[in-house]
Structure formats: structure tokens, C-alpha cells
């Protein structure tokens, strides 16, 4: 009995030792886990995670960050930013981000609640439209009695990125915000921004040179996205609707007809890729050609896409205004 007891004690001592060793091994494991967690944190610090609300601001941010940051878009191209509803993935993306870049001017209506839900106290927010003077009026159209203007009395028309000069200001705002959030990559942000700004300056010169041949050209759009571009280059945009719709309403058509009757309208412009039968028959009735004009709310995610799309816009404006 006694022998058995002793054996048991030894055994239990042995298992105690085994237990201790297991504990030690576990601790080492936990420690090394901690270490690798620290490594991950350090990596995140080296490569900041930047989430951007939608395409134009994404293009500008990507141009400034180059390869030194992980960038992610919240509203995928092809989804309408104007009445966007946030997803749980958006909340997750913001929760784990270092920086959030938005266009501002009330365009990202979904954002306030989404940021609140993400509970990310370390998040740095960059408003790309800081210090840009907005156009508050809805572009002049011959109104019917529909009054559901979304930007009215809010922050003004948000489509500032379609004016290359304001686009430049947005790039500067994004650059400065990124430098504040991630000073370690200051030189990269400055160099990348300078190169992109140079291209924006060239684009602005090209717009000015080309469109000064057609001063006061009045055109109709089916998306109130071009008042800044029109103002910059001495054109007149008359927007029949604020946001592109799948189908024009009879009231939209009547607005267009009234505007054409009252003003010397040169051309109609609609978002590229929209095949609208009503618009085609309207253009036939009014004897005005419909040209594509890209608001850049949809398109490719390469920063150079901005210049490609804007040069197409310039070509179509010049042709339409001739
Ligand atoms: Zn828009």
C-alpha cells in the first residue's frame, strides 16, 4: 500500500513537473504570439491602412500614397454614392483603419453613423474639400414644381473633383492629412503629390486653352455634377436632374425642353454607358446631340484614370460646344 502511495506521489510529482513544463511551453508560446502581434502592429505602423469613401478621392489618395500604404475603397465603383447605404464590412474597414479620406460637402451621408459604429478612437479623418469654396445654388434649370434637392441648404454641391483646380486642392488636403497621420512617409507623399499636381496643372491648361474657344457655351446635363467645371472654364451647365436616374421622368423631359427653348443650348450630356431611350428620343426632338460626360463616380481604380476620363470629357465638351 505504502509503496503504491509513494509511487503515486512520484507520479503526481512527475505530472506536476510535466504540468510545469507545459505551462512554460505555453508561456513561451504566448510570449512569441505577443511578439508576433507586436511585429504586426509595427508593420501596420509602417504601412498605414487608409480607407477612402469613393472613386475620385480614392484616385487622388492612391496617387499620393503610391505603394507605402494599404488603400481600400468603401463604396465600390458602380454603386451610387449619392444614396449609398453602409455595409457591416464598411464598419469593419473603418474600425481597423488608421486614416479615413472623404470628399466631404455632405456627399457621404452614410459616413457619420458608420464611423460612430466603428468606434475607432485613433482614426484620423481627412476631409478632401477643406478650404474649397462651394457653389450653394442648384444649377439653373427651368423648374417644374419638384423640390427634392438633396444638397439644398446642406453643404453645397459636392462635385468639386471635376474641376482640375479644385482637384489639385483636394490632392493637397489629402497629402497634408497623410503627412500628419504618418509623418514617416512625408517625403514619399510630397514627391507623389507633386508629380500628380503637375499633371493636374497641365490638365487645367489644356481645359483652359481648348474651352476658351467656346465661351458661354450652354449645355444640359442629366446629373448636376459639372457646375464647378463650367464656372472654371466659362461655360454654363443647366442640370435637369441632380442625380442620374435610370429613367427620366416626364418632368425632367419638360425641364430640358423648357431650357432649350429659353437658352441657346448647344448640346446634351449624359453619363457614359447609360442607354436611355427617352434621352435618345428627346435629343432627336430637340435636334441636339447627346455626348458622354463622365462624373468619375464610376470607373477604373488606377490614379491615371482621372486624366484619361477628364481628357475624354474635354474632347466631348469641345465637340458639343463647337
Ligand atoms: Zn453626383
TrEMBL record:
SUPFAM superfamilies, sorted: Helical backbone' metal receptor (SSF53807)
Example of a GO biological process term: metal ion transport
MF annotations from Gene Ontology: metal ion binding
Gene3D superfamilies: Nitrogenase molybdenum iron protein domain
Keywords recorded for this protein, A-Z: Coiled coil, Signal, Transport
Entry keyword Iron-sulfur: no
Pfam families named in the record: ZnuA
PROSITE patterns: PROKAR_LIPOPROTEIN (PS51257)
Coiled-coil residue windows: 186-213
Statement: the UniProt record of this protein carries the keyword Transport: yes
First and last residue of the signal peptide: none
Similarity comment text for this entry: Belongs to the bacterial solute-binding protein 9 family.
Protein name, as recorded: Periplasmic solute binding protein
Species: Nostoc azollae (strain 0708)
Amino acid at each position: 500500500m505504502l509503496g503504491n502511495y509513494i509511487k503515486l506521489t512520484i507520479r503526481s510529482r512527475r505530472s506536476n513537473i510535466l504540468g510545469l513544463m507545459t505551462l512554460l511551453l505555453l508561456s513561451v508560446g504566448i510570449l512569441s504570439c505577443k511578439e508576433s502581434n507586436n511585429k504586426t502592429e509595427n508593420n501596420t505602423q509602417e504601412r498605414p491602412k487608409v480607407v477612402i469613401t469613393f472613386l475620385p478621392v480614392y484616385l487622388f489618395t492612391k496617387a499620393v500614397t503610391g505603394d507605402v500604404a494599404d488603400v481600400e475603397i468603401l463604396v465600390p465603383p458602380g454603386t451610387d454614392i449619392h444614396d449609398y447605404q453602409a455595409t457591416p464590412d464598411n464598419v469593419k474597414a473603418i474600425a481597423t483603419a488608421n486614416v479615413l479620406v472623404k470628399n466631404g460637402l455632405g456627399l457621404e451621408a452614410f459616413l457619420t453613423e458608420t464611423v460612430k459604429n466603428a468606434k475607432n478612437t485613433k482614426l484620423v479623418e481627412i476631409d478632401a474639400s477643406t478650404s474649397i469654396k462651394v457653389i450653394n445654388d442648384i444649377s439653373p434649370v427651368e423648374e417644374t414644381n419638384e423640390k427634392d434637392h438633396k444638397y439644398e441648404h446642406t453643404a453645397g454641391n459636392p462635385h468639386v473633383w471635376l474641376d482640375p483646380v479644385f482637384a489639385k486642392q483636394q490632392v493637397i488636403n489629402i497629402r497634408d492629412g497623410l503627412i500628419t497621420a504618418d509623418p514617416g512617409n512625408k517625403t514619399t507623399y510630397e514627391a507623389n503629390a507633386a508629380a500628380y499636381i503637375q499633371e493636374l496643372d497641365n490638365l487645367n491648361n489644356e481645359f483652359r486653352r481648348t474651352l476658351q474657344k467656346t465661351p458661354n457655351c450652354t449645355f444640359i446635363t442629366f446629373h448636376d455634377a459639372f457646375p464647378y467645371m463650367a464656372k472654371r472654364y466659362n461655360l454654363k451647365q443647366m442640370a435637369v436632374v441632380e442625380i442620374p436616374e435610370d429613367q427620366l421622368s416626364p418632368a425632367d423631359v419638360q425641364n430640358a425642353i423648357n431650357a432649350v427653348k429659353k437658352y441657346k443650348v448647344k448640346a446634351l450630356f449624359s453619363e457614359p454607358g447609360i442607354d436611355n431611350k427617352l434621352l435618345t428620343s428627346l435629343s432627336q426632338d430637340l435636334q441636339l446631340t447627346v455626348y458622354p460626360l463622365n462624373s468619375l463616380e464610376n470607373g477604373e481604380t488606377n490614379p491615371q484614370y482621372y486624366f484619361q476620363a477628364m481628357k475624354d470629357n474635354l474632347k466631348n465638351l469641345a465637340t458639343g460646344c463647337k
